[in-house]
Design a protein that fits this description.
Layout lengths: L2 E2 L12 H5 L10 H21 L3 H9 L19 H27 L4 H24 L5 H15 L2 H12 L6 H7 L2 H15 L7 H20 L9 E2 L6 E2 L5 E2 L8 E2 L2 E2 L2 H7 L4 H5 L4 H27 L2 E2 L2 E2 L2 H7 L1 H21 L2 H22 L4 H16 L1 H14 L8 H29 L4 H43 L1
Antiparallel strand pairs: 1-2, 3-4, 5-6, 7-8
Helix pairs in contact: 2-7, 2-9, 2-10, 3-13, 3-14, 4-6, 4-7, 4-19, 5-6, 5-7, 5-10, 8-15, 9-10, 9-14, 9-15, 13-14, 13-18, 13-19, 13-20, 15-16, 15-17, 15-18, 16-17, 16-18, 16-20, 19-20
Length: 501
């Protein structure tokens, strides 16, 4: 049940300015349910805006890159030579490596300052830097260092987004989340990719700089909405939730209930002994915890594949003849959104499936293994017709992106059964840093490798992707074995109980 506090007991500094401007949005005028939906919407659109601002580099690759007649010439120095794909891959590496490093620190910084302000700063910084990158076109900049510096800084600001939105979600949704709900909410990444692709592609004909300006402005506008209306925690507006249990989000970040950050075990609140014991868990010790290393390396290779598509799919489509026709820059960018639409479908489908069979590891490995023939068929038959290209791209997107939320939900379940760290946010923060950081390193490596390997032919790139998925699947085998054993034991005890009756 929802409880209301007197509004005068709520610190005014914690209330977003928008609620002061519109008092009717405060309780009891608006209920807990209303504010939950508002938080869902704001966190969804916030992270979608982050991803939308990441798409322009992939959309303009075919214009900047070599041997393609761009609108205003033969490419854009320093990306127009034979080493152009290498330079483009280095841009992706600069952004994603800074992003992965920033992920190790952003969550801890967010614990000590106002999440609404911190998230707004990340969005403002990202928007400004995306616009600055686009200004390189209007100012006729051809210095590689300029673009690398902008991407590094942008990666650092972008790393603020995910820890903030999942922490806010944790404050408002302390109960265990079903696969369907998180699958739908997790589609913010795919929705953001679609928005970014459509916006950047639609203005590409006016000059590649416009493909950066509009997504940059978009995230700035959303930043204003977040700063004005995002309520970080229910207690900031006089509401309380029943549960303050520690949860784990879809990428392994610890989510702690509002105010105290305390957790409840099945038998009660974690005592000082648990806190004291968990303090001994260091970075290297966390690697030894059951399930951490397999999931961390699985996420490494899974993200490698997903982010390769994120940054190189429009470029690939531009260089691929479909049904005897070479796609334009705009058509390639728009067509690439099919992969992200598949990601939305796959996330929801994987969530529902795992809810039904109650085995998220099994669901994840099945999706990953099925994505291997899907990618193979896409490479072999994607150019036959537009219909086969769209169909196979949709299936590939669903199978590649679907397991994400399940992989890290399985991590949550696995860590939640370990008495050594159960209920301790500091230990969970260490584990989440390992998982997210390792996955983001893979995300940084994939686009870089694609830039270098693509010069040898796209068959080599797809071999790399398929091999990465296969390796990711191997790391899930121990988890799947445990899930199958658990199911067999459940069936065994069920039969015993039936016989006794």
């Amino acid at each position: 049940m929802m409880e209301l506090k007197p509004l005068n007991s709520v610190p005014s500094t914690k209330q977003p300015p928008g609620l002061n401007l519109f008092p009717r949005l405060n309780p009891p005028g608006k209920t807990l349910t209303f504010h939950k939906f508002l938080v869902l919407f704001l966190t969804f659109i916030a992270y979608a805006a982050f991803h939308a601002s990441r798409k322009p580099p992939s959309i303009v690759k075919s214009v900047l890159g070599p041997e393609i007649k761009a609108i205003n010439g033969t490419g854009w120095a320093p990306f127009d030579g034979l080493s152009g794909p290498h330079r483009l891959g280095e841009l992706d590496l600069a952004f994603l490596l800074a992003y992965s490093i920033g992920m190790y620190f952003a969550g801890h910084i967010g614990d000590n300052i106002d999440l609404r302000v911190f998230l707004s700063v990340g969005m403002l910084g990202s928007g400004i830097l995306v616009i600055v990158f686009g200004l390189g076109y209007f100012l006729d900049v051809h210095w590689l260092g300029f673009f690398l510096i902008v991407q590094i800084l942008c990666g650092l600001f972008q790393s603020i987004g995910w820890p903030c939105v999942v922490a806010v979600m944790g404050n408002w949704f302390g109960k265990a989340k079903r696969g369907l709900i998180m699958g739908v909410w997790n589609s913010n990444t795919s929705v953001g990719n679609i928005i970014g692709s459509l916006v950047a592609s639609s203005v590409l004909g006016f000059g590649w700089g416009w493909s950066f300006l509009l997504p940059g402005i978009f995230i700035l506008v959303v930043a204003v909405l977040v700063y004005m209306f995002l309520v970080v925690s229910p207690d900031h507006i006089g509401l309380e939730l029943d549960s303050k249990e520690i949860e784990m989000n879809v990428e392994g970040v610890a989510l702690v209930g509002p105010e105290t950050g305390e957790a409840e075990e099945e038998g009660g609140v974690v005592g000082p002994e648990m806190e004291e014991g968990a303090r001994a868990i260091g970075f290297l010790q966390a690697w030894k915890l059951p399930g951490v290393a397999p999931f961390a390396f699985c996420l490494f290779f899974s993200k490698l594949v997903a982010y390769t598509f994120l940054y190189w799919l429009p470029f690939y489509l531009r260089h691929t003849v479909v049904a005897g026709v070479q796609l334009s820059h705009k058509s390639a960018g728009i067509l690439s959104t099919i992969f992200d639409i598949g990601g939305v479908v796959g996330g929801v489908l994987a969530g529902v499936t795992s809810d039904i069979i109650e085995a998220r590891g099994v669901t994840s490995i099945v999706f990953l293994l099925l994505s291997i023939p899907a990618l193979l068929f896409y490479r072999l038959y994607g150019s036959v017709s537009m219909f086969t290209n769209i169909s196979l791209m949709l299936i590939s997107g669903a199978l590649v992106n679907g397991p994400y939320s399940l992989i890290t939900t399985a991590v949550s379940a696995d860590l939640g059964t370990q008495s050594l760290i159960k209920g301790n946010s500091r230990a969970l923060a260490t584990v989440s840093a390992i998982i997210d950081g390792t996955g983001s390193v893979g995300a940084a490596l994939g686009p870089l490798l694609a830039g270098y390997i693509s010069t040898r032919g796209w068959n080599s790139v797809f071999v790399m992707l398929i091999l990465s998925i296969f390796i990711a699947s191997l790391f899930l085998i121990p988890i799947v074995k445990n899930e199958i054993k658990g199911k067999l034991n459940e069936g065994k005890w069920l039969w015993i109980s039936m016989i006794k009756r």
